[in-house]
Amino acid sequence: MLNALPAPLLGVLAFALLLLNILFWVPFLLVFAAIKLLLPFQRVRLLLDPVLVGIAHNWIACNSGWMALTQNTQWDVQGIDGLEAHNWYLVNANHQCAADIFVLQHLLNRRIPLLKFFIKQQLIWMPIMGLAWWALDFPFMRRHSEAYLKKHPEMRAKDQEATRRACAKFALIPTSVTNFMEGTRFTPAKHARQQSPYRYLLKPKAGGVALALNAMGDKFQSLLDVTIVYPEGIPGFWPFLCGRMHRVIVRVRSLPIPQHLRDGDYGDDPAFREAFSAWVQQLWKEKDAQIAALLAQSRA
């Protein structure tokens, strides 16, 4: 364990290991992704997708390795036993910081299929990582405000079709389609600006999940509802690298997806949109209460 080192030195070392891990695995991803791009046939995809996923699993395992070396984290985790590595899952989690992604990947790697996140379209230009996400078929989404969509309603249909095409690729091999319904990381300022009715959560945005269900709802075994709590305070990315993520509480619930919500037009059917939103708001109400209870227990 290296966590006895001074925090700034530990942060530099952790960042170097993170970067080396990226630089080692991404070239392998790009080689096989290029072959898939040049030979866009389903048979080729069926052969190469498991190879790409295997590379990603190894990449995540190496992240877990440097985290074990540099972090002295106490993990309080329930609900991850009995998950299946060869099935389809729709994964939802609250979002507070960059460490959330490392937490999810560390705990769920090889327990369920590879987590594939909805990513903002602009991030495809992020150096190295944008190429890696493209190679792994992560769905890139344009996020327009309601005001913009009212002026340009045609963009809603384009966005929906792009998301359906991305999700259709996931039907070929088991996949965990992962979404942060809040759409952005929780901060007190965002919480106040939204006037969120939840104490520990921002308002959920259900459109991405609705589109994923519309595209491949018959594939998903269940919704994995993940709640992440940092009882000593939400760590920023640099404090996380410096080994200051001392305690993490994670609860995972496997929930059935109501059959009537698996197939519907969220964009153009007001009744369906209302029913879907009511389901999501109930999930959020339960998650908010769960966070409050976990924080109270940790303080006691």
Structural description of this entry:
The protein has a six-stranded mixed beta sheet with strand order 1-8-7-2-6-3, sandwiched between helices. Strands 4-5 form a two-stranded parallel sheet. It starts with 6 loop residues before the first helix and ends with a helix. It is built from ten helices and eight strands. The protein has helices spanning 7-38, 42-70, 99-108, 129-135, 146-151, 154-169, 188-194, 207-216, 237-241, 270-299, and strands at 74-78, 88-93, 115-117, 119-120, 140-141, 176-179, 220-229, 247-255. It has one domain (74-299): Glycerol-3-phosphate (1)-acyltransferase (3-Layer(aba) Sandwich). With 300 residues, it is of the alpha/beta class. α1 (7-38) packs antiparallel against α2 (42-70) and α6 packs across α8 (207-216). It is globular.
Secondary structure: elements and pairs:
Layout: H1 7-38, H2 42-70, E1 74-78, E2 88-93, H3 99-108, E3 115-117, E4 119-120, H4 129-135, E5 140-141, H5 146-151, H6 154-169, E6 176-179, H7 188-194, H8 207-216, E7 220-229, H9 237-241, E8 247-255, H10 270-299
Parallel strand pairs: 1-8, 2-6, 2-7, 3-6, 4-5
Antiparallel strand pairs: 7-8
Helix pairs in contact: 1-2, 1-4, 6-8
What's the short version?
The protein has 300 residues and is an alpha/beta fold.
CATH architectural category? 3-Layer(aba) Sandwich
Strand content: 5-15%
Distance between the termini: 29 Å
Question: Order of strands in the sheet with the most strands?
Answer: 1-8-7-2-6-3
Estimated structural class: alpha/beta
CATH topology group:
Glycerol-3-phosphate (1)-acyltransferase
Q: What spatial form do the alpha-carbon principal axes imply?
A: globular
* Domains (count): 1
Low-confidence parts: none
Helix content: 40-55%
Order of helices and strands: HHEEHEEHEHHEHHEHEH
Summed up, the helix count is 10
CATH top level?
Answer: Alpha Beta
Radius of gyration, taken over Cα atoms and rounded to an integer in Å: 19 Å
Please tell me the overall pLDDT.
89
Say how many strands there are: 8
